[in-house]
Amino acid sequence: MRLEKLTWPAVARLSPSVPVVIPIAACEQHGHHLPLFTDSLLLGEIVRRAEPVTADCALWLPLQWLGNSDHHLDFTGTLSAAPRVYLDVLGSLIDNMIRHGFRRIVLLNGHGGNIVPGRQAVFEARQRYRERTDLLLLEATYWQLGRGVPLPPVGLVQDQMGHACEWETSMMLTIAPDLVGKYQQLEPVSLAAGFEPASRGWTTRDRTENGHIGDPSAASLAKGEALLGYFTDDVIAFLERVISWDGRSRNA
After folding, report:
1. Three-point CA angle 150, 141, 20, nearest 5°
2. Host domain of residue 144
3. Does 76 fall in a domain?
């Protein structure tokens, strides 16, 4: 079910146990070869594929395209909500849906810069409603849901998501090839932020001159379709766990 296509009485009639899925993405630089809206386009495609499978048992909100992208602001065109502002936006969306009676809320994320504020938003919301025992508040980043499951056997060079990288470039070749610029000769940029396992504060300019991180030159259409199918299956499997939650157990 898509929230924007329903009337308010139709939403009011839904069971409080229906999971609410809030897709969150970004509008930010993606190197010299991918459009600013890449994260939103890719998450939108995964939503398009996953929503029909869960149409009768999950409520999907419109994709929120403004994300936390302050680390990309050195690159022209990037739009960002500052971290505290973005936390408040996410917290308000969660509060809205709890006020409307829903108990299971998922921030489905498609942008790396949203991971920390997304997790913080659900953590803070849980503290606001600490007396409730019936709430399930989750942040889920689509490319992290399949950990422990082998990636598609299509010759991937990268073993993790980068930025405007092999993975994102491949998926964009699948859904919007006309928006993909010249990528074949781009030099790879290390995925490492440095000082692992510590978490280093960084701006994108600290790591890359052109804006990409990873190896976009390794991208292909076949890899893109395989990755989109893999990630869509992960999202569906995850939502099935949310739907089947018994309302009490700590794990599902």
Report:
1. 120
2. 18-243
3. yes
